[in-house]
Specification:
heterodimer, A: alpha+beta, six-stranded antiparallel β-sheet, 14 helices, 25% helix, B: alpha/beta
Chain lengths: 603, 393
């Protein structure tokens, strides 16, 4: 039974597809509950990383506490917990949902339900959340709120009859959303007297305070000065600050009780000690069991990152260390490539995570990077009976030593207007997908289920899917298992020397096409030298594709007179700079574009 | 301002004058020049004289003024000037700086711009060398280039110039043109060698950004002769000229012995020079300075005031290391190369010691060669000279 205090609390999240208006709705709710003055209000308060605001997605979960005076005259505490909005962060999403009792499902009145939304709705239903559907963007000319309502009822099986029809952007009917949250979403009801069990749904590194742990107290209570214990990492800390989230700031308090959402600061140096999904308990009076659902993070995608300017290697290390303070899912270790010099082997949750990290390194730390092709982690079974994980193609042993290899398979869900089913099936087929089934969501939209090798997805599958469906299809995937597969390592040789950074693992049947395409791309991107350069792709020493970069015949400025000297010098200097940034492979100078060009072979 | 090194200032003995006017712009040219702006010529002329006066006062004040050994009217199309305008400038330079006994005075001319009488007047004004923009001996190619002259104009111009007493005539030709064949180049040489010409410049077409040629051909290299054909043209020119008694003394220039462009040698020997007129550059002391490229701005700045330097800008201030590198980069354009003794005389050390690594890398690639006193390009280096120059920038 909830206590009187708990009856006035609602812990909820907003589920929405990218661009369906989650952040705008959150902004409006914050505005209407008066926690921020208009001056303090910065658009989309929850997404406070630049990159998040630009991409319109949430990378890390955020939380905010609002006070809402409802029509019944009571003042309610509304804790909005933002969910990360992408498939790479599946597990993080599931933990955020576990910290909520209800969810607001925002659906775009013009676009309807998307694969990602649905995936998150199912996750929410799995977590026993009550769901309040909200139909947004009703003021768009192309809005079809009734069609979308039916879709919500047909596809998800939710009663959409009471769904508020709103426009977050135009500030229409926001109060109704707040009112329905109070009416329809349940309150928390954990027992305050039981031993503490608080769920960690996020953690952030602050350079003054150390790690700030975001928690939902499920049972018991925690106060300043308590000795807490992380039930999975077994680390113990003393609480030296505790409190609630207000938009853009933290409000210290004395204690957090069952049902509260807030933060704990206790001089924790490393976010790894506060794994998302772990349970916080008290060292003095520990809970018997941790909360269910904890999984250690698992990197699915790996690549080598190298500074284009070798001298910035220490800067890259510092930058990765800083990012890791806030991102426990990022892993890295030093590696050396003959072609690229010193760099790091980095592990990511998925392709988006990889792109985000790369972009943050470039933007926030002004690093110019060369990335090797992203790779998944393979299972390697050798003839001598030894098994190991392989996350770097360079380390793949000679084929004669390999008994078998396994690759990660995912369950992929693609939601699309039915007109594109043919071309999507073709694409999935081509990417070694295994068709499971197809469901009609309504007369015009279908959901396709495939089992696919992850290595086909990380290799520009998103781009291909978007271009084949003019951007209408959406994708979600989840790790399934490892399966045996006929994989080979493809090496690239320039002027008869292997370029380690360009090696990758590929299914044997796809090796020829990929090899040809790569050789062509490299030919386009390697400048002509004074000598002819053979570009060869080979499997275990056998050449399967070859192109030739012809020798150039001249490199000479015809004219240089008094008025030209400064200008010509600058031109030569620029060319020289360009050459400096190139990588030396044997006696071939390879520009960074050549390394990047093979990441996107279809362009 | 301490970077400016007045003590470095050597006597300046060369003057370049930029004449920024043309009848029409050629499709490949990115030099600063206005077409159809002849009405500005009088104002330009007055401004130019003011600039020369100011430069002279400065030179006197800082004691680097000296008799001029070379004067070069470049453009644009300097032959659009009247002989009187040319004479006035030469007279002014003579009255101020003074001219050396054998001062070389070159005028670039377009073959279609001067009549028989003009050559005589130009010769009387003091001009003693003509650089004639013949470019090719095929009217179809001249048309493509956007030239206003024909092959016959070139022949007539050279004969009239010779009759007027010009003993020093140079011609320009361009290779690597759209639709040009090796045979065309050979025929152009036939014509040049049949005429009283002592100097030939042969330029590979460069697609300069902002020109119509750039827009036309940058994405269509297939419309231009390929590198193999272009190099065949280049080496054909050198072979033919050598056979005829010319010496190729710079990457794109050959002359009969004694017929080298002394003015241009100033640049390649990294010596100092004045630059007068819009977009002209000067190199005095350790400073390279450029005038505004805007002709009207130039005219305005120099019309009344005696300090039009407000519309010029400093390109670069060279330190000792820069100057040494530049001497290598420019000197290696000359086939004779850079003299180690000459370098040591200026900078007090042997280039083999200063640039040990650069020189050894280039020697290994077979691009340069060291023969006792001289460091110079090899035959192969002629085709890949930028690789050499990049070592020194």
């Amino acid at each position: 039974m909830p206590s009187e205090r708990q009856k006035l609390i609602r812990n909820f999240c907003i589920i929405a597809h990218i661009d369906h208006g989650k952040s705008t709705l959150a902004d409006r709710m914050i505005e209407q509950t008066g926690v921020l003055t208009a001056r303090e209000m910065q658009s989309q308060v929850l997404d406070n990383m630049d990159l998040e605001r630009e991409r319109g997605i949430t990378i890390k979960a955020q939380a905010v506490r609002m006070a809402y005076k409802a029509e019944d005259g009571q003042i309610y505490t509304l804790n909005l917990i933002d969910t990360p909005g992408h498939v790479d962060f599946h597990y993080e999403v599931s933990r955020t949902l576990a910290a909520c009792d209800g969810a607001v499902l925002v659906v775009d009145a013009a676009q309807g339900i998307e694969a990602q939304t649905l995936a998150n709705v199912y996750l929410a239903l799995d977590s026993d959340l009550e769901i309040l559907p909200v139909i947004n963007k009703i003021d768009l000319p192309s809005a079809q709120p009734d069609v979308v309502k039916h879709e919500i009822e047909d596809v998800i099986g939710l009663d959409a009859s009471y769904a508020p029809m709103i426009s977050a952007k135009s500030n229409i009917n926001i109060r109704e959303v707040l009112e329905k949250i109070v009416q329809y979403l349940p309150c928390p009801q954990g027992d305050e007297e039981k031993p503490l069990r608080a769920l960690i749904f996020d953690s952030k590194y602050d350079s003054y305070k150390g790690v700030i742990v975001h928690v939902n107290v499920k049972e018991g209570s925690v106060k300043l000065g308590d000795r807490i214990r992380m039930m999975h990492t077994h680390k113990e800390f003393i609480v030296n600050e505790i409190g609630y989230f207000r938009p853009g700031e933290m409000q210290p308090a004395e204690e957090l009780l069952a049902g509260d959402v807030g933060y704990i600061v206790s001089s924790i140096k490393n976010v790894r000690d506060t794994a998302v999904g772990d349970t916080v308990t008290l060292a003095e009076n520990p809970a018997q069991e941790s909360l269910p659902g904890y999984k250690p993070v698992r990197q699915m995608v790996f690549c080598g990152l190298y500074p284009t300017d070798g001298a910035r290697y220490p800067d890259l290390r510092d930058a990765l260390e800083k990012l890791q303070l806030n991102d426990a899912a990022l892993s890295f270790e030093a590696e050396t490539s003959a072609a690229l010099g010193f760099g790091f082997r980095c592990g990511f949750l998925g392709l988006l995570h990889y792109e985000i990290v790369q972009e943050r390194l470039e933007r926030e730390f002004q690093l110019e990077l060369i990335s090797t092709a992203p790779s998944v982690v393979y299972r390697l079974n050798k003839i001598d009976g030894e098994s190991s994980w392989l996350d770097n193609p360079t380390n793949m042993p000679d084929p004669t030593e390999i008994d078998s290899m396994e690759e990660p398979i995912v369950n992929a869900t693609i939601m699309t207007p039915k007109d594109y089913v043919g071309s999507i099936m073709e694409l999935c087929q081509e990417r070694r997908g295994n068709y499971i089934n197809m469901e009609y969501m309504d007369v015009s939209r279908v959901m396709l289920h495939y089992e696919m090798p992850l290595n086909e997805i990380i290799y520009d599958f998103f781009d291909a899917l978007k271009s084949k469906t003019r951007g209408y299809a959406s994708l979600d995937y989840e790790f399934k298992n490892y399966q045996k597969s006929d994989l080979v390592k493809l090496d690239i040789m320039l002027n008869n020397e292997i370029v380690d950074a360009l090696s990758f693992v590929v299914h044997r049947e796809k090796a020829y096409a990929r090899a040809r395409r790569m050789a062509e791309k490299l030919k386009e991107n390697i400048p002509r030298h004074q000598f002819e350069i053979p570009v060869q792709a080979c499997i275990g020493g056998k050449v399967i594709a070859r192109e030739t970069v012809r020798a150039f015949r001249k490199d000479v400025l015809a004219k240089c007179y008094g008025g030209d000297i400064t200008r010509k010098k600058k031109l030569l200097e620029k060319q020289k700079e360009g050459k400096k940034r190139m990588r030396q492979v044997g006696n071939v100078e390879v520009p960074q574009e050549a390394f990047m060009s093979v990441l996107k072979l279809d362009e | 301002m301490s970077k400016y090194n007045k003590t470095d200032r050597q006597p300046v003995e060369a003057a370049y004058i930029h004449v920024p006017f043309c009848r029409q712009k050629c499709g490949y040219c990115d030099f600063i020049s206005l077409a159809g702006a002849e009405h500005l010529m009088t104002d330009w002329h007055r401004a130019l004289k003011n600039e020369i006066e100011a430069a002279w006062r400065q030179a006197e004040k800082e004691s680097y003024s000296a008799k001029l050994k070379t004067i070069y009217f470049g453009g644009g199309t300097p032959s659009l000037l009247s002989p009187k305008q040319v004479a006035e400038i030469i007279d002014l330079l003579n009255n101020r700086f003074g001219l050396a006994e054998d001062c070389e005075i070159t005028l670039e001319t377009n073959p279609a711009t001067l009549g028989a009488g003009d050559y005589l007047l130009m010769r009387q004004s003091g001009v003693n060398r003509l650089s004639l923009g013949m470019q090719a001996a095929q009217d179809r190619l001249l048309k493509k280039l956007g030239r206003i002259h024909t092959v016959q104009d070139s022949i007539t111009a050279i004969k009239q110039a010779e009759a007027a007493g010009f003993e020093r005539i140079s011609t320009d030709m361009i290779i690597g043109l759209p639709d040009q064949t090796v045979q065309d180049v050979s025929e152009t040489l036939d014509l040049i060698l049949s005429l009283p010409v002592e100097h030939v410049s042969y330029y590979s077409l460069i697609l300069e950004e902002g020109t119509p040629f750039y827009r036309c051909y940058i994405d269509h290299p297939e419309l231009l002769p390929d590198e193999d054909a272009e190099r065949e043209m280049y080496h054909l020119i050198i072979d033919r000229l050598n056979q005829a008694g010319f010496v190729n003394y710079e990457i794109s220039n050959a002359a009969r012995p004694g017929g080298e462009s002394r003015h241009n040698l100033v640049y390649w020997q990294a010596k100092q020079y004045y630059g007068f007129g819009p977009a002209a550059h000067s190199y005095i002391g350790n400073v390279r300075r450029g005038n505004t490229e805007d002709v009207k701005n130039y005219i305005q700045a120099w019309s009344a005031s005696d300090n039009g330097y407000t519309v010029s800008h400093i390109d670069e201030v060279l330190d000792n290391d820069d100057m040494q590198r530049e001497m290598m980069m420019l000197g290696l354009r000359l086939l004779e190369g850079v003299s180690r003794a000459g370098f040591a005389e200026r900078y007090g050390s042997d280039p083999l010691d200063v640039f040990t690594n650069e020189i050894s890398v280039l020697q290994k690639q077979g691009l340069i060669q060291v023969d006792d006193d001289l460091i110079h390009l090899t035959d192969r280096g002629l085709d890949f000279a930028n690789i050499v120059f990049r070592e020194f920038v």
